[in-house]
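## Example pair
The file below holds two records. Each record gives the amino-acid sequence first, followed by its structure token line.
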Amino acid sequence: MKLILIGIISIILTACTAPLVVTGLPTLLPSPTTQMYRVTAHILNVRECPSITCDIVGTLKQDEVVQIFEYATADDGGRWARIAPDLWVSTRYLK
């Protein structure tokens, strides 16, 4: 009985400490220090997650300034910046 219990605990601990691998989602990169960027596109779509397949939840106009809290790289190699909780923009249109 004791050996079985230790085996179960070992499996649980291994499952909890093993790295989580998720495919199809962007890879989050380390957060930068507070950075401010200006929108260079005439209209920049704001999305609910860092991918062109995510829903557009708003737009920004050219020359608006945004603060970046986090970066992500999508599976297609596109770079994204989180400007607020659940609000992402493509870094391609920020300067």
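Second record, same layout:
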Amino acid sequence: MTSATDDGSSALACFESLSMVIEDDRTGLERFSAAYQLIHGYFSLVVCVVGIVLNALNVVVLTRRSMQNATNCLLAALAVTDLLTMTAHNPYTAGTGTDLTENCFSHSELERDA
């Protein structure tokens, strides 16, 4: 189990890594890409969770007897495919994209190779 000081030092190392990535001589798009990689896992996890809930709500509403017509049938099918896509992507994101120390390590590897 890690202590509070370990968590603080890993966060500090991550922010130092981020500042080193931002201060180099890469183009703006490359710097944005490097900075966005730090938050992408968390951001996509939130989007997937919200999307799953809202698409499930869409399916419930659009499949009611009073809402059944051709357009709503297509919208319900689209909501189901979005729901399945987000459900399949969520475990991948939670398992690989949300480890802050892993992201910092990958950035320091990039800097060392450059």
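Notes on the second record: The chain has one domain: 4-113. The chain is about 85% helix and 0% strand.
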